[in-house]
Every structure is written in C-alpha cells, then in structure tokens.
Amino acid sequence: MTFDLELPPAVPGSNDEHGEVFTRRWVVDLVLDLAGYTADLDLATMRAVEPSCGTGAFLGPMVERLMASCERHGRTVGEASFALNAFDLLDSNVELARKSVTAQLVGCGVGHVEAEAITAGWIRSGDFLLSSHEEGSADFVLGNPPYIRLENLPLDRNAAYRRACPTMRGRSDIFVGFIELGLRLLRPGGALGFIVADRWMRNQYGAALRAFVAEEFSVDAVLEMHDVDAFEDEVSAYPAITVIRRGEQAEPIIASANSRFDGAEADKLRAWVTKRTTKELVRPSVHAARLPGWFSGVQSWPSGSPEQLAVLADLERRCPPLEDARTGTRIGIGLATGADDVFLTRDPHLVETERLLPLVMARDLAGGRVAWSGTYLVNPWDDGGLVDIRDWPRFWAYLEDHGNRVKGRHTATKSPDRWYKTIDRMISGLAARPKLLLPEMKVSAHPVLDEGSFYPHHNLYHVTSTGWDLEVLGGLMLSDVTNLFVGAYCVKMRGGTYRFQAQYLRRIRVPELETVTKPDRATLVRAFQLRDVEAANSVAIRLYGIPDLAGLGPEAKRASA
User: Helices 470-478 & 533-544, crossing angle to 10 degrees?
Assistant: First the structure.
C-alpha cells in the first residue's frame, strides 16, 4: 500500500514551532541499541527511516553504524545507497544534515562527489506524515519525532494529518501520527525505536493508537525517562524510549530511570538487556524488569514501578478477571439523578411510600459497615420501568413543585414526556441483592457489604456475584492486590486518592474460585469483617502465587507516581 496525500503549505516559523527537541548522543545510542540497529547486522541490505532528522542527532550515529557494518560485511557505500531514508520539514535542517553526513562519509574514505550524491539520496525535504510511503518497506524507523499539539497547527494541515493518520484523535499530538505511520512502514520483524512522550500510553487521545499496536505489534521496551537529562535543551516532555516491533508479543523490558541516569548507567542497562541472566535490574539510577507479556486493548496501559508492572502482567496472564460470567460476577455503578436536591430526601412521608427507595451514600460506609443515614431516592421507577406519574398524586405534586429544576435537566429536555425520570434507570432487584459497595474516591480499597437493603448512589460502585461468597471476595478486594490494579490504571487525584471506577475495577484479576480452600475462605471472611488488610494480604500472596505485596500497595504506588 502506498500513501500519497496532497501537501498543504509548510508551517512557517522557528524550530520551536516545529516541536524540535535535540537528543543527547548517549540517549541516541541507547535507542539504536534497544531497537537493534547495530553494526553486526548487514545494514546495507536493510532500510532505516528517520522521519524527522533535524540537523542529524540520530542520523549521524546511524551513518556511523551503517559504515561500520559495511566494513564488517565487505560492502561498499554504493551498496548502501537505499539503506537510509531521512525526512525533515525544514530545508535549512536538510542542508545542515547533508553537509554533516557528507563530511562523515568523506572521513570514511568516500570521494566527495560520491558522498554528496549518496547523501542527497538519503536525506530529503518533506513532511513525513504527508509524503508518499510504501507500507511494509522498512526494517527500522528511528528517531525523536516532533512534539506539537494538533490544535496549534493551521486548520488545513491539521485536517490533512488526521486524514493521513486515523489514530490522531481528539486533542492529539502529532507524534501519535509519527508512531502510527512508522509502524505501518515496518516489515515483519521490523522495529520502531523512538524517544517520545509517553502520555499516549495512558491518555484518551492515545486509545486508537494503543488498539492499533495491539493488533499486530509487540511492545519490546519502554524506558520512562521523565527526570533524565536526555535533551540538549531543558524541556518538559515526559519522554520514554519506546521500542515496538511488528510481530508476536514477546517478553518486553519495562524500566524507569531517574535524574542520575546517564551514559555510564545506560551502559549498565544495555548490558543487562543483552545478557538476559536476571528478570530484574535494580540500580540507584534505574529499575528495570522483564514482563511475561504486554497489556492489550484500547484501555490505558498501566503506570507504576517495573516491579509492580511485572506482577500485573503476570497476574493478567494467569488469573481470570473479577467480572466473569463463569462466577456470575458483575460490576456496576449506582444511580445518578441529575438533581439530587430534588430526588434525594430524608423525609419518609414526603411522597407515597412506594415511591421511596432507601439509598446508600458513600458517607454511610466510612466505618466499614453500612450505617444508613436515612436517605431515600424519590423513585420514578418500578420493576416494569418508568411509572405513570399520574398514578401517584403526591409524587406528581412534589415533582411539579420543583418543575423548573427537574424539567431543565438535559435528560428531561431530550424526552419531554419523560421529564421526571432520573438520568440512570433503576436496575430491577438490585436493592434486594447482596452486594459489595466501593466508594469511588479512596486512598485504598474499601469494600463494604450490603446484605440486600439499599440501592447505591452514583458515587458508589457495586459488585454482585452468584459464585463468590461476597465476604470471601470482599476479603480479597480488601487486600493490596486491588490497590495494585486500580492504582496502575486509574487517574490519581490530589493526595494520592484513587478513583475506584468500573473500568478500573474490571482490570482486577482474582484467583480461580475452586483454588480458594475452606481455611483461606474463613481467613478472608474474618479479615473482611475486621478490616484486617494484613491478614487479607497474607492469603492473597498465596492465592495469587506472588512472592510478596511489600512495595506494591498504595503507599508504594503514590511514591512511584
């Protein structure tokens, strides 16, 4: 497949407007090594693309390796005339890069005329995202793509980029397009190696790209370098060395480096990656681990220390999800009204008794048990759906008294004949079902059992199950394994508070139900009843088959965030 799109006018202005950030040499070498662009390969017979070469921060070291490979494999530079394909949007950068590479070739003994001709073929002016490309034509795509928010571009170029790269959605950055197009260019087994902001791995605008990666690519390495002095200029780019390969998912490297990480420490990391003798590397400047697999789908990829992510990846591979048809376990959210000041009351005589539903609030769970505050939902639903308001005179009169507040809601204006309904429909029978309740905002997991007396308010999540004893499951969910999963995927709030939303609760893995012995069930029930996290952890360690939960709980997660 060939990509060929009409080119809008180039964006004028300074290098800053083009998102240029120049990478330090030792960082470039680490990217090339992790991606496998090394002189022991016959690089003259391969094709490497540098999509935004600037003045040559990546291109220079790539040419060095290419020439060393030619010498090792008995190749002439002429045989490598198609080995590199570099782009830059700025003519001035292209001119400087060509001069630098020409000088490199001349220094290797290549005649000046031949060096200029080869360099002119290797490096050209053009917008990588809007140039013509043949899919599956590259063995390597390497570099540091520009960082520019799409909304900061002229409208015609913004639209052209979105047409060229469908994964650039919402308030995206154009580096998302560079990753997508770079991956499309790869042959089977080919590798993309970028130093690029890692926000796409977790933000909503990266969902389509994450799904694209999951289809036919392997995440080989992610080295988070937020605090590392990786660039020639000081920038706040949240960078990570990211290596993705076209092929089946293998065991990836996940690593996190701090401000002490430099060229010498990069050598230590490189040696650990090459030797493959241990699963983990712990140094003052960097912590790295090998994972059994990667995290799939459009949902955000988790964050945390390499140790935490290695445990997560292992559990996701071995254990079934919390929400599982085999155990009849379901996760849901409580009811939202759109006008709590009208639909919630503590007056048990406000309307007809049948139109009042006991509602449990997050504040009712503070002590680890339901201590109902006496709140009712003024309930427009029954088991058959929305009631006929005319059948309930007091209910009708009450809502009419608050007509402006109720009828002005978006849900009411959409359905004027159903103006008195709440945003969410009541789930028939949920109030009478035993369920675990979890407040949305907590610093750690706080499951509480409702034995079947209340309906949950919208800032509570509920877990029901036909297979699990809910106190046994509650004991498991009290353990730090829940915090490990939710903390890795959720958006952290101020003070390290987690958001226990359904999308994150569904990422939790649990042991196979039949592997939980009677003694373990008894211990988990007691731990749940006594709110004994330590006892819950002791059983969870054994059931999940992990060595320890020390360093994996909420305090550790907040420290690593």
Answer: 100
Largest CA distance in the chain: 97
What length is written for the chain? 561
Q: Which residue has the tokens 């490096």?
A: 123
Joined together, the tokens standing for residue 450 give: 């409702």
- 181, 100, 201: which is closest to 141 by C-alpha? 181
Residue 457: closest CA among 399, 560, 376, 517: 376
> Which two three-digit tokens encode residue 314?
């292992």
Pair of tokens at residue 334:
């409580």
| pTM (whole model) above 0.90 | no
Tell me which residue of 248, 188, 257 sits closest to 222, measured CA to CA: 257
Asked if 370 contacts 364 with a C-beta cutoff of 8 angstroms, the reply is yes
pLDDT in tens, 214-231: 988 999 999 999 989 888
Taking alpha carbons only, the member of 435, 431, 458 closest to residue 447 is 435
Whether 246 has a pLDDT exceeding 70, the answer reads: yes
pLDDT of residue 150: 87
Pair type for strands 253-257 and 217-224: parallel
Write the CB contacts of 241 (distance below 8 Å, at least 6 apart in sequence).
27, 30, 31, 34, 193, 194, 195, 221, 222, 223, 225
Domain boundaries, the chain: 14-246, 330-560
Helix (H) / strand (E) containing 263: helix 263-275
CA distance 62 to 48: 9
85 strand-pairing partners: 49
DSSP, residue by residue, 132-186: -EETT-EEEEEE-----BGGGS-HHHHHHHHHH-TT--SS-BTHHHHHHHHHHHE
* DSSP-based helix, strand, coil % in the chain, nearest 5: 40, 20, 40
- The predicted structure's pLDDT at residue 552: 60
CATH classification code of 14-246: 3.40.50.150
Distances (CA, A) of 516 to 236, 388, 421, 542: 48, 48, 43, 10
**Residue 555's pLDDT band (cuts 50, 70, 90):** very low
Non-local CB neighbours of 426 within 8 Å, separated by 6+ positions = 335, 357, 379, 381, 455
Burial class (CB in 10 A: 0-12, 13-18, 19+), 225: buried
Token match 């979105």: residue? 162
